[in-house]
Write a sequence for this structure.
């Protein structure tokens, strides 16, 4: 059975065609800069990599061009659209309505639209992808996997903010959490590896966006992002945790508008604000050459992660494993080393030689004597979507 996984953003569509249940990747690709005359499509199979530039006006045009490539007589992998039996969509915000993967119905689309208010940067593009795919693959089963679904198990004591109850009950103001498919995928892989009857793990997703989840017996019980993907860890250009009193000070005393504050903490802060660089590779290189801002930013970043580890150990009353994933988590041995330094009180002992290796797949990088296992588990959100969609359909 062939499943097309679509991650549709405001101006991009990421796609993968996968055979299930064998989990064989047939092709993968990306449409970027939708709405521009110089939009690009990258399409990769085992044997081909094709890059094209087109004037792509909208998502329909973009997905249409993807289908042309999928069915291309020379480079294609299917002969007609009906060969795609399931289309699996990633949607960022499912509010309180979805704790599981679900078939797309008119009611589900209404909800995705309703939650645009909570995820204005993500849900519109996600919805557009659904509408276009329904049109192009009318006979496929359309399935949606929500980024927020995995966190629906977070108990009230962790998900409510200490503001008047009415705001929670009437307006759904609470922690929703994000990167759920990634945290779910790596925690499942970790549990398969640990083979424990009961497990307490912390998953650390460090990419452009960063978040941590406390996962007890496979369930998310606390998470560092909140109502929006803003708080918690220091990210590429987002500040993470700040005293919200700062916002009032900026507006009342320093003449910032609210929009300027939003841009400041979302697009100009984090590692970018501290160092002038967003890509961690540049920051690590500058720190190595002695750049003081970069050295301090790395210390601040990893100190914040350590504090969240501490709080999640307290929340779970124990810890079996910490798991690093996503672009930074999988690739930066320096960040992993700094996070694990002086954590022996918690039973975390890193094996520095293993940490420096770059072997693919799940790997254990802790000492044999370490009470807590330290793992690197490459995330695969598309595969998680494919697995969930396949399970739902079958
Ligand atoms: P993601 O959002 O998961 O794609 O992660 C993207 C981030 O991963 C980039 O901003 C880089 O900072 C980081 N990254 C990727 N490769 C490396 C590497 N080899 N060393 C350090 N950071 C990396």
């Amino acid at each position: 059975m062939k499943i097309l996984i679509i991650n549709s953003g405001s101006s991009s569509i990421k796609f993968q065609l996968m055979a299930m249940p064998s989990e064989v990747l047939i092709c993968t690709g990306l449409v970027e800069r939708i709405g521009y005359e110089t939009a690009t499509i990258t399409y990769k199979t085992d044997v081909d990599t094709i890059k094209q530039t087109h004037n792509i006006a909208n998502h329909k045009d973009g997905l249409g061009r993807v289908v042309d490539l999928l069915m291309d007589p020379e480079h294609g992998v299917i002969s007609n659209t009906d060969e795609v039996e399931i289309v699996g969509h990633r949607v960022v915000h499912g509010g309180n309505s979805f704790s599981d993967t679900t078939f797309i119905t008119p009611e589900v689309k209404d909800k995705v639209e309703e939650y645009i208010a909570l995820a204005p940067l993500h849900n519109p593009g996600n919805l557009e992808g659904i509408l276009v795919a329904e049109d192009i693959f009318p006979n496929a089963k359309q399935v949606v996997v929500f980024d927020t679904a995995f966190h629906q198990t977070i108990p009230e004591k962790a998900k409510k903010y200490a503001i008047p109850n009415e705001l929670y009950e009437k307006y759904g103001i609470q922690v929703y959490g994000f990167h759920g498919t990634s945290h779910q995928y790596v925690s499942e892989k970790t549990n398969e590896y640990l083979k424990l009857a009961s497990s307490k793990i912390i998953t650390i997703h460090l990419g452009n966006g960063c978040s941590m989840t406390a996962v007890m017996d496979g369930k998310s019980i606390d998470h560092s992002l909140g109502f929006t993907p803003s708080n918690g860890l220091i990210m590429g250009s987002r500040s993470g945790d700040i005293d919200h009193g700062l916002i009032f000070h900026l507006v009342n005393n320093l003449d910032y508008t609210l929009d300027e504050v939003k841009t400041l903490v979302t697009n100009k802060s984090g590692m970018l604000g501290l160092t002038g660089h967003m890509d961690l590779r540049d920051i690590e290189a500058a720190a190595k050459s002695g750049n003081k801002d970069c050295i301090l930013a790395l210390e601040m970043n990893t100190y914040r992660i350590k504090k969240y580890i501490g709080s999640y150990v307290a929340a779970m009353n124990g810890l079996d494993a910490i798991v690093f994933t996503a672009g930074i988590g999988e690739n930066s041995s320096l960040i992993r080393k700094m996070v694990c330094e002086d954590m022996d009180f918690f039973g975390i002992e890193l094996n520095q030689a293993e940490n420096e290796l770059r072997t693919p797949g799940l790997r254990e990088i802790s000492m044999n004597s370490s009470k807590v296992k330290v793992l690197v588990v490459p995330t695969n959100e598309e595969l998680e979507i494919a697995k969930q969609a396949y399970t739902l359909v079958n």
User: Anything to note?
Assistant: The longest strand covers residues 24-32. Residues 292-316 form the longest helix (25 residues). Residues 249 and 255 are 9 Å apart (CA to CA). The chain is about 40% helix and 20% strand.
